Amino acid sequence: MRQTNTAPRNNKLKPSSNLIMNGSVRVRVIRTLLAIQNGQSLASVLDPLLNSLHDGDKGFAHALLLTTLRQWHALARLLDTLADNPIDEVEVRTTIQVGLVQLLYLEVADHAAIHETVEAAKEIEFSHATGLINAILRKVAKNPSKFRKKCDKKHSLPNWLAYQLKQDWSEQYDELTQGLRHAAPMFLRVNSAVSSVEDYQQALDGAEIDADIVELTTGFNLMNSSDTAMATTLSTKGLRLHQSTAVNALPDFALGAASVQDMHAQLAAPIINKALMAKINTEVTDTDGDIAENNNNEIHILDACAAPGGKLAHWLELISANDQSSLFHVKQDDAKSTPATADIKVTAIDNEAPRIERIRENLQRLNLSQHDLQQAEKSVALNIVCADATRWQHGKNKKAATNEPVFDAILLDSPCTATGVIRRHPDISILRTEEDVEQTALLQADILHNLWPQLKAGGYLLYVTCSILKQENVEQMQDFISHHNDAVAIEFTEDCNWGIEQTIGRQCLPIDSESGDGFYYALLHKTMA
Question: Which DSSP helix (H) or strand (E) runs through 123?
Answer without folding.
Answer: helix 110-123
